[in-house]
Amino acid sequence: QERAVRCLLLFSWLRLAGCEGNEGELVSTHGLRPRVALHLKRSPVACLSNPCQHQGHCQVMGDRPVCSCKPGFQGEFCQDVVLKLACEEEHMKMMVRKEVFELLKIPRELVHLKNQACKVSEKEEEGELFFAATLTGENHTACGSIIQKNNSHVSYSNVIESEQEAHGAMISRSFQLEVHFSCIYAYEQVVRLPFALTAVDKLVQSVVREGHFNVSMRLYKSPSYLQPYQLPTVAAPLMDTLYVLLKIEGQHQLKYFLMSVLDCWATPSMDPFQSVRHKLIEQGCPHDKTVTYLNAIGESSTAKFSFQMFQFVGYPEVFLHCRVRLCLPNSPEPCAKQCPRHWKNKRALVDDHNKIVSYGPIHLPAAPSLEAETHHSSTDQQDLAGPSPWLPGALVLLCVLGVLTVAAAAVSVGRR
Fold first, then answer.
1. For residue 238, what are the contacts with CB-CB under 8 A and spacing of at least 6?
2. Where do the ZP domain residues begin and end (predicted)?
3. Which helix (H) or strand (E) holds 80?
4. Which of 55, 103, 105, 392 has the maximum number of C-beta atoms within 10 A of its C-beta?
């Protein structure tokens, strides 16, 4: 019996030390009475060989060894490195926990991709530090990536690896690490709507078109607005007053809009945005001291104002431009401006339509010859200087009417 017990003990120790077999309990009654049967459980001797890798801590739980891994490692026996691989549409990013390199005593400057020129960088993500490498379409080839493809997929592969630290000695104890990673993309994929479709058993149609509204500008000789200047030529001395009429054209359009004048100015060319300009009306109020409003602007479909004629020094022509605004009747914001200016920083209504209406050119002829009254030298100077404001006589004005189309929206909705 004593010999049998010794054999059982020896056999049990061999099995707990690593021999094959998963039984945690060994019982034998051969040659023994039932009362002397042995019940042997595994002891901490299971961790004597320390199956945990990478300095993992081994402890017995139940009847088997359990490993507690160092940061950066995972797996049943801490055999795996903690990795993160992101395969995005614009890049692929591989990250390895920084603690892996610290435990293996690998400095970051020795870590790189397949091409040693492509180094890794330190990144923080969710409170953890990683050595990371990012590859895009531009640097895959430069960093040594292997690109493979077949009829259904394309694969991009690379490796994060470390090189041995050279000390010039005969031996080396520096550790080397290789982490291979790949991103595989399918050529085909199934896409779906993020919402459900509902069948509709009725037909609803909508049509939106842009309507056309015309605003015209004309010049008149008197405040009665009964004597318009006849095109193509008009005569207006510099000291005369010109009367301007801005009007929405079309009898059926008058019920849709009122009209207000925002700005009026003059330029020596047909370009309304020329830097050389003279302001007549600015932000709805007279800027030139000779400008006078002749009706309640903003309360009807017309705008009337007057100003004294002038000329640009060194230029033969004058062009008039006005920026008008069409407003909806009964709008919560009034279309008319109160002058003198009461500056209110109110944004324009979304249904307003601002447009520029131009008029011109107004030609200013050269001054008449004064040879009978002046010397030749004076005449030459006047020819160079152009017309002078004190000269008597009529100036010929050639006016071209500018008409601008102002867009508004007309909506037609199909009925069921």
1. 309, 310, 311, 389, 395
2. 86-342
3. strand 80-81
4. 103
Range scoring the smallest mean pLDDT among 63-72, 232-241, 361-370: 361-370
- d(CA 64, CA 79) in angstroms, rounded, equals 17
- In which residue ranges of the chain is CATH 2.60.40.3210 found? 87-164+173-210
Q: How would you classify the pairing of strands 111-112 and 91-97? A: unpaired
> Residue 388: which of 317, 313, 319, 315 has the closest Cα?
313
- Is residue 119 within 8 Å of residue 111, measured between CB atoms? yes
pLDDT per residue as tens digits for the range 36-87: 333 333 446 778 888 999 999 999 988 789 999 999 999 999 999 989 999 9
pLDDT at 141: 86
Cα–Cα distance, 214 to 220 (Å, whole number): 19
Instruction: Assess contact for 304 and 244: CB atoms under 8 A.
Output: yes
Tokens of 382: 């006047």
In the chain, which segments carry CATH 2.60.40.4100?
215-338+352-363
The whole-number pLDDT of residue 223 equals 93
CA distance 10 to 223: 129
* Distances from the Cα of 366 to the Cα of 167, 239, 311, 315, 370, angstroms: 95, 16, 12, 10, 12
* pLDDT greater at residue 1 or residue 358: 358
pLDDT 10s digits, 269-282: 989 999 999 999 99
The architecture CATH gives domain 87-164+173-210: Sandwich (2.60)
126: left (phi over 0), alpha (psi -120 to 50) or beta: left
What type of residue sits at position 367?
A
Select the more confidently predicted residue: 242 or 15. 242
Query: If one looks up domain 50-81 in CATH, what number appears?
Result: 2.10.25.10
**CATH level 2 (architecture), domain 215-338+352-363:** Sandwich (2.60)
Which H or E element spans position 178? strand 178-186
Span 13-41, average pLDDT = 36
